[in-house]
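Thread: Newbie trying to understand structure tokens

Hi all, I'm a second-year student working on a class project, and my supervisor (Dr. K.) asked me to get a predicted structure for one chain before our next meeting. I've only ever worked with sequences, so writing a 3D structure as a token string is new to me. If someone could post the tokens and maybe explain what I'm looking at, I'd be very grateful. Here's the chain:
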Amino acid sequence: MEHIPVLGIILAGGKGERLSPLTKQRSKPAVPFAGKYRIVDFVLSNFINSGIYSIYVLTQFKSQSLLQHLSDGWQFSNLLKNQFIIPVPAQMRKGEQWYQGTSDAIFQNIHLLELAMPELVAVFGADHIYRMDVSSMVAYHQEKGAEGTVAALPIPISEAVRFGTMEVDQDWRILRFLEKTDNPPGIPGRPGWCLASMGNYVFSGTVLKEELQRDAADENSSHDFGKDILPWMTNNHVLYAYDFHCNVVPGEEKKNRGYWRDVGTIEAYYEANMDLKSAEPALNLHNLDWPLRTAEYHVGPTKFISDAEGHQGQAMSSIICEGCILSGCQVIDSVLGRRVNVQNGAKLNETVVMDNCRIGPGAQVRRAILDKNAVIPAGERIGYELAEDRKKYHVSETGIVVVEGRRSRIPLSPVTI
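---
Reply by user tm_fold:
Sure, no problem. This is what the structure looks like when written as tokens:
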């Protein structure tokens, strides 16, 4: 393999337990989002748009849906050896056990670093919704003469317990890295705010390899970047924090800068989808200068048709993806994926509907998430009587009803999940 200036490694093995039941049959990066995309599409699009074309995607739990999606939508030709997107399932090179942590996932595949001999390695997670020009972070890393750079998101100190946080000096060199503390150091000159790690890193290729080997030999390590690698590196290497709010994505307005969502719970996932159908969403899906890529399927155009009584299918303040048929129904403040069939007299309100769902005549659904291939019977009412909903469906703490899909429906691709 040719020498690669920047090698991309995507950590896509997350279970996403808090997002269950959407992660019952798939890993979190494979969960559909915004109608036609998957969560993993965001980090992959960021890499490709930033000119990083050598990418390994490390998978682990319930990976079949993710692997099929990568095959359907993210395959380069093999004409150039340094342009590839290759999924790497867990190899269990250390015995019959899963990866022990984020750094162990890369260590178990350290031969990929040795093969590519990259000058720099961009290690990014696959669990979040955001746009980022990674080339700007790479340039910052090089300008600072850093051996490691951590993408940092300024957040209120009150929210710090959910994140790894950093103490930095006036030049944003990292002095300490602390994992999930409720008393983090503040940002110099910004009282009440601290720097949270986004889980995205740029490392010198040689330094990363050395640190992975050192950490692997430490029997007391949990083999995780946030818990072990970064805290140790702050005392032994030059690490800098990169301010995500300074990242400028071509085609984006200033008001959209700094958008980042952890959709790790049903509530967060639902609210992020609901924001998209507003007139001016915080995340712009229509930026042609920074396209969001995904798998495309051969489905027909969306149709709005009248039922036998002349009632017209309607959709208001909603996202409707290709292949849908809306017949004499009402869809309000909702997000519909591909090939959704909403039949006569049905009403959807504030609902996320994934691919291949069928909503029967007269059904009423509100504040719900319908997983792929879900079938709602005629006359069913969902989201109106939560006590009844809990007998048949999953209901979140705030009353969002999640309806699981049926695997017997005809899929868009060889995979139904």
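A couple of things are worth pointing out once you decode it. The chain has a mean pLDDT of 92. The two ends are 35 Å apart (CA to CA). Feel free to ask follow-ups in this thread.
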